[in-house]
Amino acid sequence: ILIIKEGLGVGRPMKTKGMPTKVIRKGIGLRLKPLLDVEAFYGEFLVNDKFKDIVEELEPGVHQFFPMELYVGDEYQRTDYFFNICNRLDTMDREKTFPINARGFYRFKNGEDRRLVFSTAKIGNHHAWRDKCVPGGGAYISNELEKRLPDAGVTGIGFSACEES
Q: Model pTM?
């Protein structure tokens, strides 16, 4: 189970004290499923060296990559990294996004008309970020990073296009 909660998924650096160092995949289905370059980990990401190197090339020293020994059952597989996105930005285009509540957050009810648009000017030169005004602080990546990951053969990733202005 995940034992670190403080600072997780908010777009800020985390303290390293007490950070887990091992991940164990269990269950018969997991033995049949191949290990991918990017793995889901409690709504966060375990990534390999290929992913880490691309992010570091685009944003050197910005994000945290905590080494994690990856096991399937009792068998060591490899060392991956817990990827902590350390950019917390407001990248919404407020003129084109709706609905936005009185506090400036994108909030909607199921069935309600909605539109979420991101500002390329606000994104600037950032390549991975958490948006502080979108529910759950969604993890977002730049078009450049989205292009480079498949070009490098990184597996385990999927993308949803976002509208931008």
A: 0.83
